[in-house]
Amino acid sequence: MQDQEIASVFLSDSESKLYPYKVKMEQVKTELLKFGLSQNQAKVFIYLGKYGPKSAPEVSKALEIPRTETYFIINTLQNKGIVTAEFSTPIKYSTLPINEAIVTLVKSEQEKVKILASQEQELTELWNDIPAFIVETSETKKEKMQMLQGTPQINSKIKNMINQTKEEIFIFCTEKDLSRFYYADFLELLSSSNSDYKIIISPTQRMPEHAKQMDKDKIKIIPGSKWGNLCFLIRDSDEVLFFLRNSDHPSHNVFAMWADSPPLVSSLRMLFELCWINSERMY
Fold first, then answer.
1. With 70 as the cut, is the pLDDT of residue 48 above it?
2. All domains in the chain, ordered by first residue
3. What is the pLDDT at residue 54?
4. CA gap 228, 199 in Å, rounded
5. Phi-psi region at 261: left, alpha or beta (left = phi > 0; alpha = psi -120 to 50)
6. Model pTM score
7. d(Cα 13, Cα 17) in Å, to the nearest integer?
8. pLDDT (0 to 100) of residue 127
9. Which tens digits make up the pLDDT trace of 56-95?
10. Is residue 146 helix, strand or coil?
11. Beta partners for residue 280, in sequence order
């Protein structure tokens, strides 16, 4: 393919012979966004990776990105360690192999997390040195809610709920949700917790493999599909996390609502207890 053809992949329609490549490139671009790249950064990375090395003006022309923005993007990708420059005139740029680039991006994010974690105590002490200027009373306390999008944010909230459980935590989920909970180490966290828990899995005809290692008296299933893809967690009758988009969606599109509203928590708790009575053990 010619340089111009490669660039036109991003703009090809469903009738074009290049369209299958566009679909795959869009999938790659979507995945790269999860590693902290912007839309155009991912686009430049793909272009250089599949038709590099190229100079900045060549990238700008091929992808129809303003030249100043192109230089900024390339510089950013260099700083991330996934694009290299050749000693030539004009300077040409190329990418690391995709596997090396991913490892580099992951390590970079891990370093950022380590730095933030190391600053936790310092920031907490600084925060505590500042007095609170509001006196909270029964009149000022309000029910709260929080919208959470993306697996990292939701997983962090769930782990916090499990760790704060004093008496019991109830989980109603699909088999796909249970699989994600397993790989996020939630099931291990529940098993090692001193608090009680109950899990209902619906719809399914059999006990999932991930659940077979847990206490069989604490897990039931509902074979029917009338509950669809319902998924929620209740902690100590104090708070609830309800998935509006669960594991049927890509991890970055998962969406949930957390709330400590007593009527909402009470309603979902009653629903769970009713389902528990009518669910089945499969051992």
1. yes
2. 3-100 (1.10.10.10), 145-278 (3.30.870.10)
3. 92
4. 16
5. beta
6. 0.58
7. 9
8. 85
9. 999 999 888 999 999 999 999 999 899 999 888 889 999 9
10. strand
11. 221
